[in-house]
Structure formats: structure tokens, C-alpha cells
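Figure 2 data, in text form.
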Amino acid sequence: MVEKGVIDSIKDGIATILCSENPYCASCKACEHSEDGQRLKAKYSKNLRIAKGDIVEVYISTRKSIFASFMVFIVPIILFFLFYILAVYVIKTKSEPVQVFMGFGGIVFGFIVNLLYGKLRKDEDLPVVTKILTRPIPNEFYAELVAKNER
């Protein structure tokens, strides 16, 4: 998936990009939602000399998006059933509340696994800035253009 946005800040090889609201990607959590749109963190090549205010194109890997969705939505559900079955057959409890509690423990464990996985992978799975579409006009240059056109 390709997204377009404006560079908001740059720090340690990671750019924060302001993107417009996109209903198709609202659930993937690659972006932080804020009052002025979505903020997306992305890696960029040092050869690509980006600056704050540049309009850029960002590539978000479809494979990584699908894998992230699987990890967030499917893994906790699978772990719910595994922990529930663990309570029934391994612990051999007949108490249904204990079985359900164990199932919910599996969901919590699934979210902990996701949290740890995210911390381990840190910046490796970030989207990538692929190209600069346009650069902003510097304010002093813009002011000079306006002044010339007013004469």
C-alpha cells in the first residue's frame, strides 16, 4: 500500500509523517491518530534528503500489514481456545468459570506476546519513505515572489 503525507519531524533515521484520514487503514495501528490527521512513523534512506514539510510517498508492505493484523486479532483468539482447552484437558477442571477465566488469560497472554514482539522488532517493521513528491517553498522565497507580483 502506498500512502502520501507531509514530513512533520525527523529524528534518528525515523520520519514522522502526517497523513490524511484513510478509512481503509484505520484498524492496522501503524498510525497514531491525532487532531490533525494520522501520524505515521517511517524509515528513510540517508540518500533521500528529506526535510520537514516535504510531501513524500510512503510504502507500507502488504505482507507486514497482514501479519500485524494476524498477530493482533487472530493470535489472542487462538490462545483463548488453547488456554481453555488447557484448563479442560490438562488441568482437568470441571469448573466452567475457571475454564473461561483461563481462556481470557490466553487473550491477555496474546496481547503480551504482541507487545513484546513489537518491542523486539522496534523499527524493523516500519513503513519506508520511497520518494519525495514535492518540496515546500521557503517562506522568504514565497514572500519575495508575492512582493514581485504586487508591483
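Caption note: Helices lie at 62-90, 96-121, 139-150.
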